[in-house]
Amino acid sequence: MDRVFEALFTRRRRMILFMLKQNSPRPIVDFLPRSVGAQSTETELRHDDLPRLASLAYINWDRAADEVSRGQRFDEIEPMLELLENHADELPDNWPQQ
Hints:
Layout: H1 2-7, H2 11-22, E1 26-27, H3 38-55, E2 59-62, E3 67-70, H4 74-86
Antiparallel strand pairs: 1-3, 2-3
């Protein structure tokens, strides 16, 4: 369970996992904002979020292809993603979004 919560700890990691649930593999550019400050976000993505999710085996990160796909343990976190997705309307309005 600690692994699951570590993976879901940041908004960006949750977004990555939700996007991979819908479609895998995905190019890294899918996870980057299209706004000013994207360089900072890309650095954090490449140096924190992707390595952490890869170490947890929830994603496979092909650095040469700049592509991310579901990892060997993705099925471990998928039920939690489905739970969050299916019950989002039941969470309190002030539920943390970030």
